[in-house]
Amino acid sequence: TVLETALLDMYTKCGSLEDARTIFQRMKNKDVVCWTALITACAQQGDAKEALELYKEMEAQGLQPDSPAYTSVLAACASLRDLSQGKAVHARILDSKTDIIDDILQNAIINMYARCGALEEATALFLRQRRRSSNSWNVIIAAYAQHGHPEQVLELYKGMALEGAEPDSITFTSILYAFNHAGVHKQGPVCFKAMQEDHGISPLPQHYNCMIDLLGRAGRLDEAEELINSLNYKPD
RNA sequence: UCGGGGCUAUCCAGG
Q1: How far is the CA of A3 from the C1' of B2 (A)?
Q2: Of A57, A28, A55, A26, residue with least CA distance to A40
Q3: Measuring CA to CA, how many Å separate A197 from each of A84, A88, A200, A204?
Q4: Please, where are the H alpha helices in chain A?
Q5: 3-class secondary structure, A218
Q6: In A 50-109, which Cβ lie closer than 7 Å to strand B?
Q7: Alpha-carbon span A55 to A70, nearest angstrom
């Protein structure tokens, strides 16, 4: 079972959901781990609906989901924007006899509310969260970025620094995305610079894209052009 | 004792 699950996961990572399913179907003893592996595979490869069905099937078989299982199921709810399912799953988690909510699961719960449009609920849970990792901040920053609230994104970014959490590439992708889409052009270049100089993160193509777009919209065409030209001299 | 599964952004694809 262990080897089969590892194989299933490998197929998933290679992008072959079909092969992953085949392995799963042929397995004799299906434990929570292999169910979770397949649920994750479905949720990530755009078949989130099937992920939820698998979850129900798993429970119907009397298997008790653990933290990773619930984390995957909530990721599926989030990608489907299915708030009622998400809430139902959340309720089950809270009903568990033992406390199974770890840091990752808590992030997944917050993300589910955020993606399903319940920003207030997500924010309340985030504020109450005890140990906030960089991923926790990324979840809430992405939420405000996508709902078009660049001011809050900036506040959260500052809050992150105050709390000593390190922003990463993903954090800055969300931040620059927020500024760009909301037409807030002043802070973008400041953050882009801080990303490199204060946090030692080298810009990825998505960061450059955001910046070039943002500078263009701001009418700072000379700076946009300068950035583009600087790219042409990079070894690649 | 050890071992297989879990959350976040952009783009792309799908719709």
Answers
A1: 15
A2: A55
A3: 44, 44, 6, 15
A4: 2-13, 17-26, 32-44, 48-60, 67-80, 83-95, 103-115, 119-128, 134-146, 150-163, 169-182, 187-197, 205-217, 221-232
A5: coil
A6: 65-72, 74-75, 78-79, 102, 104-105, 107-108
A7: 9
Number of Cβ atoms within 10 Å of the Cβ of A120: 10
Q: Give A225's Cβ-side CA count (13 Å radius).
A: 4
C-alpha pair distances (Å), A34 with each of A25, A62, A119, A182: 11, 15, 32, 42
Tell me the whole-structure pTM to 2 decimals.
Answer: 0.94
If you measure CA to C1', which residue is closest to nucleotide B11?
A206
Q: How many CB atoms lie within 10 A of CB A197?
A: 9
Q: Measure CA of the first residue to CA of the last residue in chain A; give whole Å.
A: 43
Per-residue pLDDT band for A235 (boundaries 50, 70, 90) equals low
Which nucleotide is at minimal CA–C1' distance from A74?
B7
A152 touches strand B (CB under 7 A): no
CA of A3, C1' of B3: distance in angstroms: 9
Which residues 172-201 on A are within 7 A of strand B at the CB atom?
A: 173-174, 177
pLDDT digits (tens, 9 = 90+) for A122-147: 999 999 999 999 999 999 999 999 99
Could you tell me which residue, A30 or A236, shows the higher pLDDT? Answer: A30
